[in-house]
Amino acid sequence: MTTFTPAIASADIGVYGLGVMGANLARNLARNGYRTAVFNRTLARTERLIASHGDGTEGHFVPAETLQDFVSSLSTPRVAIIMVQAGEATDAAMEQLAALMERGDIIVDCGNSLFTDTIRREKWASERGVHFVGAGVSGGEEGALWGPSIMPGGTVASYDRLGPMFETISAHHDGEPCCTHVGADGAGHFVKMVHNGIEYADMQVIAEAYDLLRKGLGSAPEDLAEIFASWNEGELGSYLIEITAEVLRHKDAATGAPLVDLVVDRSGQKGTGKWTVQTALDLAVPVTGIAEATFARGASDSMPQREAARALAGSDVDLVVTEGERDSFVEDVRQALFASKIIAYSQGFDLITAGAAEHGWVIDRGALAAIWREGCIIRAAFLDDITRAYRENPELPLLLAAEPFASRIRQCVPALRRVVARAAMAGVPVPVFASSLSYFDTIRAERLPAALIQGQRDYFGSHTYARVDKPGVFHTLWAAAGRPEEQWS
Fold this sequence. Notes:
Structural class: alpha/beta
Strand content: 5-15%
Shape: globular
Order of helices and strands: EHEHEHEHEHEHEHEEHHHHHHHHHHHHEE
Distance between the termini: 78 Å
């Protein structure tokens, strides 16, 4: 059994939890010149990391057998990153570390924790004189190793110590680090949650585009891969479009069949999409694309209902596209996809704006868009334009109203209408395409039927209403003909 010699106050930073993400983040830190302490409750993981990467070629690791040795190996003020399962395991690791730390030391949670848990933990830690930082990390396993997008919250003082290291190991875009101090307490995990919500919508609407192309063109996945690859060269250029082409190209080694056709059509989820939708409901922010994408994952997993629904006969029209309309159909789907993706990002930034107002965070949306340009899952070519829009107008109320998006949305919406109409007639489910169109029409409508709803609410519950022609709050006895309304204030 390996015995590691304790190294007192020799490490710049430590990583507690050496699963794939934790081990890769530790390797990234070490490779960038930081002496990195490593610890795992199961010693075998620490031993495997040191056996595979501890020869000095990737940098210097300081392994520890016990948590006490791990904390003792950190130079002050100590910085310890937690990379364990969200929830109770994070609470336990935080409390264990805090018991061994001193005032001014820093605990960093780089997992996908719910932001309200982070707010609670930061308060708990600050009462003990310890900094607690909730940091969103996006980019998956490869990002953790070679450069993720990092979204730390917490105090300014903690970022002064932690920020230079995170900025160094993060992805970079045109020389700028894809890391910024997002805001106080839970702000970092909040924006990471919204990032993941946007990711849900982005993935679902790409899948809807694939489904329409597959059924309309009758093309094999490898042929559709070329369409997505060509789209990746233009305004749709993004990590998710890029990997879509790669997934569609992949053949099963045993059968030679497209692997996508052998994958069960049931998509999993870990909860960040659900959290995004729940938070949006609490804040009354319409993130319709994210919500429909989340529900679509739930529908895919509703196997008894899907099986029972096979008995429901349809009167669908044929979606098959003729050779003469092939190019126009593909272009319509491309434009509809671009419009829906931008709407999802716009809704996500609306939620960030509302969350910042609710919790008293000062979140620079331009800086946030900038750090999503590389390293993260939702990185996309148009994030340069989003960054520019928020930097030119930090108070921008609606991303869709900023150029170049306003012009592009106007150009793309006719295609989105055609795609949604055609899918509806053919019985092809396109929940994000359809909800994106409905949101666009709702947000730009001069007058909504909410006036009727407010009348109904006042009728049965005396909820009152405002008028367009005079100030005040009013209530009407609706069933009493000719009775004037009462002005309550």
